[in-house]
Amino acid sequence: MDDEPEAVELVEFNLRQAGFDVVAAADGTDALKKARSVLPSLIVLDLMLPEIDGLEICKLLRRDSATARIPIIMLTAKAAEIDRIIGLELGADDYVTKPFSPRELILRIRKILDRGRNQGDEVDRMVFRELLIDLPRHLVSWRGKNIELTATEFKLLTVLAQRKGRVQSRDQLLRDVWEYNSLIDTRTVDTHMRRLREKLGPAAKFLDTVRGVGYRFVVT
Fold first, then answer.
1. What fold, for 5-117?
2. Confidence of residue 120 (pLDDT cuts 50, 70, 90)
3. CATH number of the 125-217 domain
């Protein structure tokens, strides 16, 4: 979903070459309509779309239960930190700035899709008092009420819960959740943690910040 025909063609061509089925849209209204009707496995979304911009689309998709869990990668020419942070806070799983490498974009897409497929390799269910993390069903609930999390948020919570009591640095979380070996802004982790805590509500008490180091899952 991009406002530049050349960029759409470039992304579409490379994704098809990588074996993906692609549905393209050139404006915000069409993008929103197709996302809701097709329910794709992942959305690559430009910020600067006509009619409805990418940030608003991201917000609307996250509010709709049918599309709330679809991973979103922001593809944007806006490299400023505030634009990246806003996109992540609204629910984007990752971002790629233009000009971009198609190979990098495909790598990031595969990593995000793999997060959803590889849940449950170690433990099927984790229960911490009234918090349930069900890995095979990709489900989190508090006092029996489901909490809608994106694939990245779910992986972040799962990694911390599986290592309860042990502090995880931001760099470690970037490697284990995002699977990034190269240096990127560690504030990506902080933004996702803030959003995860907001969604967990009272259950956010299990997430502890270790100032200057990182985060840990605690059960007291």
1. Rossmann fold (3.40.50)
2. very low
3. 1.10.10.10
